Amino acid sequence: MSIINNINKVFDHRIRLGIMSVLMVNEYADFNMLKELLAATDGNLASHTKALEKADYIWVEKQFIGRKPNTRYATTTLGRAEFNKHIEALEKLINNQ
Amino acid sequence: MSIINNINKVFDHRIRLGIMSVLMVNEYADFNMLKELLAATDGNLASHTKALEKADYIWVEKQFIGRKPNTRYATTTLGRAEFNKHIEALEKLINNQ
DNA sequence: TTAAAGTACTTTGAAATTCAAAGTAAAATG
DNA sequence: CATTTTACTTTGAATTTCAAAGTACTTTAA
Fold first, then answer.
1. What range(s) does the Winged helix DNA-binding domain occupy (chains A, B) (predicted)?
2. Mean pLDDT across chain B, nearest whole number?
3. pTM
4. Nearest CB partner across the interface for B3, out of A13, A18, A97
5. In chain A, what are the domain boundaries?
């Protein structure tokens, strides 16, 4: 078992780590909120949210606000658990291995 | 300025994060030590050390131990500084953004 | 009222990155 | 001395990342 064993590949990328960090403290965040907070381009953000969706770490809710489409994201139970595991592994790696 | 502004792209990958973590607490680590600690394949480890070298975050010393070649790595001053910045940014992101 | 510009995403495919298999060269083993 | 092992490096296929372009409206403005 290596020292990076519990570091989750899905959270390797800073944008995905950022999305999760936002969603750990906000019940929901919509596309534009994430886009602004992370300074990501549309296409880029879409692919990273899709990767987290595919892993079943976040889920997506599409609705209309007034006449405008709105896409918002939230963590799944699995996502929260995996994120916590990842953070713990990160701390262990950095502080004492 | 986004919430992931000081997250360093070079440290996004778990193997590179692992290499740096090892080298922050060990003055030197050789190829085989890193390979074992990180459970990486030869080619994979070589490309990640090369990436850190290219960024000037680590440097490489090639010597012979007895009759065998030995490649060992150590952090640069820049590497240590950038790693510390990264860790600080990670903590900020995870704990309060 | 309809043309132009903006919003909210999604799709696309080129570019960059990741990865392990294969290669190299010398050492150790039998 | 033939074979295997060690210590890496090279290679290029596979995967991932990225932003430009596309889609489907809505809003503004003439």
1. 15-94
2. 95
3. 0.93
4. A18
5. 3-94
